[in-house]
Design goal:
Length: 71
């Protein structure tokens, strides 16, 4: 599932749909609870989503930085 979201997150429609579906929150949760592979895919997905200013703000507002730094 993490890899699928990572791959979808490069598409512009998905960059709008994933946050609406609470996907950013889920990805942030996976940074601390997922397997190492899933954590890496979550990091990549967040990076793909962060190419828009709106998503960057959401990611920062949802406190993604501390778990990202821990990885």
């Amino acid at each position: 599932a993490c890899l699928a979201i990572r791959n979808l997150a490069v598409k512009s429609k998905a960059k709008k749909a994933i946050p609406k579906a609470k996907g950013i929150e889920s990805l942030i949760t996976l940074l601390t609870t997922g397997t190492k592979r899933c954590q890496l895919d979550a990091v990549a997905a967040l990076g793909n989503l962060a190419t828009t200013a709106q998503n960057r703000a959401l990611i920062a507002d949802m406190s993604a930085v501390p778990p990202l730094v821990k990885l």
